[in-house]
Structures are given as C-alpha cells and as structure tokens.
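TA notes, week 10

Several of you asked for a full example with nothing omitted. So below is the full record: structure tokens for the whole chain, then the designed sequence directly under it. When grading your own attempts, check the secondary structure regions first.
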C-alpha cells in the first residue's frame, strides 16, 4: 500500500502541474500522513541533510566549468580540430559531432550544455551540406547524452551522494561504457547515411590539422588532468571540479582571451541558477528518501522481485527495463534522486555491485533524455535547430536503439564496465 501511495501521490501532483521538487515534498507528506504522523521539523531537517554534503560542492563548480568552456572558446576549438581531421570523410560532419561530443563529455558532464553547443555550430553546416536535418539533430542529441556517462559527470555525483557510492570509482567505471555509446551511434550513423546526396568538406592539409590541434590543446589537457589526478589520488571529485572551473576560466580569459571581465557575472549567474534548481531537487529528495526508508518501501520492492534475486543478470535486466520506462516520464535528475534510495537496498540484498549498477543506471537515465514525451535534450536540439519535436523523434530513433543495445549488452557482460577499476587497483 505504501508503494501505491508513494507513486500515486508523486505522479498525481506532477500531473497537476506541480514542479518535481514540490511534488517530492508533497509525496513525502502523503506518506507521513498515511503512517500516522506529520511533523514539519522532519521535512526541514531532511531537506537540510539532503543538501548538506561536501561532494555536492562539485555540482556548482562543474556547472561553472561548462559555462567558462563554452564562453571561452574551448568547445568551438574542439569542433574545429575534429573538422580538420575527419571532416572530409563521407558523412564526416556526423563523425565530427560524435568525436566532439565525446571530448566535450570529458570536460563538462552536462548533456544539455554540450548538445546546445554542438547543435549551434554543426546543424547549420550539416543542413547546408545536404544532410537530413532530423537525422542530424538526432545524432547530435544522442552524442550529447554521452556527457553524463563519461567523467566528470554531475549525474554520477548525485547518484554517489544519494546512494553512498564512491564517486571516483563511478568516474573510472564510466569511461568504457561512454566510449561504447559513441561507437554505437557512429555505426548507426554510417548505416543511416547510406546513399544520401551529401557534400563532403575539403580535406585539410597537415599544417592546418596541426594548427587546429595546437589551438585545442589547452582544452584536451583538462580531461587528462582530471582523470589522472583522480586515479593517482591527488584530489577528490569535488577538488577536481574546482580545478576544472579555475582552469577553464584562466584559459578562456588569458590564453584564448574570449572571456571578458564584464561577462563573468552573467556566466556565474547562469551556473548558479542551474545549480539552485538541482540543489533544491536534492533537498526535496532528502525528504522522500528518508520516508522511503521509514516506510520500508525498498523491502517491499525486494519482496516483489524476490523470484529474480538469485539471478543477478535477470534482476539487473528487469531493473533496467523499469528505469527505461520511468525515464520516458521523468527527467534525469528526479529519476536519479527518487529511484536510487529505492533500488540501493535491493542491489545490496541481491549482491549487485552498486558501482556497476550505477553506471548502467546513469546510462539508462541518459537515454531517457532523448525519449519522448519528456526528452529534455531533444527539446534543446529542436529549439536550436528550429525543427518540430516529431522530426527530432524520427531522427533520433536509430541512435537511441543503438545506445540501448549497448546498455543491455553491458548487463550481459559486466566485466567490460568493471575493467578500468580492476586496472586501477593493480
């Protein structure tokens, strides 16, 4: 009964148009009422505890880093470098989009920001070169959702804090799956373009390629510093976020000289605005998480899936299907914050590694960013390219299917996800 009250109150409040954060608090109050007590102090205390976490300091700094990278020209130079090396191949602009998306994912960790930047630069070029605009937008959206999987990832920070999982291990385990997502949509793109009448870009000279690479070198150094520093234990994910923000600011202001002093307030304000939305969601989720535990909802879920408990692969597969369905209705951050405290006790009872599951969980939620009707990233690319949602949905389907296949293959072959952690422990 408590599961029904939790789900129906949450979905009911959202259906009435209530923002997700307030709906989370509302469903918490509904559970409290059902359990026979209503105490505002519990709500306030758990909202405070939900956001009172040192690792969550990484969120505003990674947001700042993303703003500084886009305004400072790092993003544009990465696209220019990819254009110089592979833009002349048939379908080259699509390969450029995926290559740039993977590199940008290792810088900011924000799917929305990466997609907006890629779409603004590449959609006009792809439209002019004769590419199908719907398919191009679908590819760019699918490339953008790699950002939450490849470190540094804001989503992994939220999952790690909510579920009590090592963020550093999550970062390391996300590298290979993120790259496989990129490979999957590259293969789908190669198959899709077929015999389309595409105008290819002229081949660049070696000197032009090297010049473009030199220009983007400052951007390429950052992921090496972050991943290398985390692997070596020189700094925590939170400290890595500070380093990323400061590095991108210095490069943007003093090396590329594209960030002006009078722009700083607007950039910081945008990062603060996005951070405030995320942190309020985290605070509200603290209330529902406490009541989920108090109402014993995880144990009730464990009872429902008890027939699958002895088969880790089958249980993981079933949970991935469940998350995939939830992702069509809920946005990324609420899904992570709501489902993590529900699923974590089930994972521990079944003996499933929470790091391994976390990577698949984040991949699944990332795919949810391009699934209708919510599809936040699809909305972004539609807004930038000025195309209807129906066109973007049609264009994204082959790439979404390819990434979903990769996710379920990783359910069958978990050693692929855990391989970087095994290498790190040696």
């Amino acid at each position: 009964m408590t599961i029904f009250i939790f789900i129906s109150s949450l979905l009911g409040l959202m259906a009435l148009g209530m923002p997700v954060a307030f709906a989370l608090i509302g469903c918490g109050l509904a559970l409290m009422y059902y359990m026979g007590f209503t105490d505002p102090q519990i709500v306030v205390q758990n909202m405070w505890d939900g956001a009172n976490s040192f690792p969550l300091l990484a969120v505003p700094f990674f947001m700042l880093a993303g703003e500084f990278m886009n305004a400072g020209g790092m993003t544009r130079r990465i696209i220019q470098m990819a254009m110089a090396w592979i833009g002349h191949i048939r379908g080259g602009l699509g390969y450029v989009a995926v290559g740039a998306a993977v590199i940008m994912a290792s810088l900011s960790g924000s799917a929305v920001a990466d997609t907006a930047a890629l779409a603004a630069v590449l959609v006009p070029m792809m439209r002019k070169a004769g590419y199908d605009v719907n398919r191009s937008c679908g590819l760019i959206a699918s490339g953008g959702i790699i950002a939450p999987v490849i470190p540094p990832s804001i989503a992994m920070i939220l999952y790690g804090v909510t579920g009590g999982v090592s963020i550093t291990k999550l970062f390391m385990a996300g590298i290979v799956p993120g790259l496989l997502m990129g490979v999957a949509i590259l293969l789908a793109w190669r198959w899709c373009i077929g015999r389309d009448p595409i105008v290819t870009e002229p081949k660049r000279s070696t000197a032009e390629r090297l010049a473009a690479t030199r220009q983007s070198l400052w951007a390429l150094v950052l992921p090496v510093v972050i991943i290398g520093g985390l692997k070596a234990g020189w700094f925590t994910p939170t400290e890595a976020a500070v380093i990323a923000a400061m590095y991108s600011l210095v490069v943007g202001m003093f090396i590329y000289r594209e960030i002006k002093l009078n722009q700083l307030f607007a950039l910081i304000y945008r990062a603060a605005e996005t951070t405030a939305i995320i942190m309020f969601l985290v605070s509200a989720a603290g209330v529902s998480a406490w009541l989920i535990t108090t109402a014993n909802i995880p144990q009730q879920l464990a009872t429902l899936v008890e027939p699958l408990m002895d088969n880790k692969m089958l249980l993981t597969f079933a949970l991935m299907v469940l998350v995939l369905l939830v992702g069509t209705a809920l946005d990324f951050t609420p899904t992570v914050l709501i489902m993590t405290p529900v699923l974590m006790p089930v994972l521990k009872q079944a003996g499933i590694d929470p790091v391994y599951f976390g990577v698949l969980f984040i991949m699944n939620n990332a795919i949810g960013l391009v699934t209708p009707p919510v599809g936040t990233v699809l909305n972004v690319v539609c807004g930038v390219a000025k195309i209807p949602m129906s066109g973007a949905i049609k264009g994204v389907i082959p790439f979404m299917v390819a990434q979903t296949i990769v996710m379920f293959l990783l359910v069958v072959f978990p050693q692929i996800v855990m391989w970087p952690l095994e290498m790190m422990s040696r």
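The chain has a mean pLDDT of 86. Use that as a sanity check on your answer.
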